[in-house]
Predict the structure.
Amino acid sequence: MTSFGAPSRGSLLAVLAVLTLAPPLGAQSHSESRLVFTVFGGVTHHGQLWSIPRQPLSVVFLPQEFDTLRLRRRITTGPTVGVTATLFRSSNWGIQAEAAYLGIRLDDTCDLLFAHTDVQNRAEQLCNDVSQQIRIASTTTFMVGGVRRFFSRASASPYVRVAAGLAVRASSVVAVSGRYTWVTSTGTLTTSHRPVIEDRHELRLGPTAGAGAGVVFALSPAYRVRLEVRDLVLSLDRPVGPADELLAVETESTLRHFPSLVMGVDIVLEQRRGRRY
């Protein structure tokens, strides 16, 4: 599946270089912001997360027999929004505190490799339902860090930043489930929800870190806009093999990069006046 508008690693590095080397514009020395509140939003992207080549699934009417599924999970383009407070203690160096939301969109693919004869095709229905779902693993990050800006009084001021903190994820990136419909012995059409892999510890708390580069454009003394490319590093779980008969699976932690492109609006709460030259 091709994600439209997803920033690639190479394109982010190219934009980063352009933004960092951008010269000051114009002959006007603008006011220099010291305390800034920023609201931002954008898109983020990743790719393949994990796969299980052969996942057994017990047959509903023959519990001791198993169908076989192939499962793959990838992360597609998702939204990110947040707020940042920046305090510059000098013309070029500042400290930041940020809270952000990251919508990790999980796109699953299920292939039915083997199925016992079932006139109601329950395994096939479940597999198709898994493939049609888009899940959101909501993640909130809280970070503090430092920022270095250049040409602080120019119309366009490039900057770089680094930060670290904690990430809280309220949804599992391991659990898999699907639905199917079937007719009971009384002729009633019923929809059932069936888990394939369970994760009993969906709430996760772990470290996170990020870096970014961008440029701030002055609109007025009180308002500015910014364009930034950033990379967020998160620790995510992935299964190391198929789930067992109790639907439990052994997992391991892996570091994943989430490159993103964001745009923000700055509200300047404190500043130093500029001058003409």
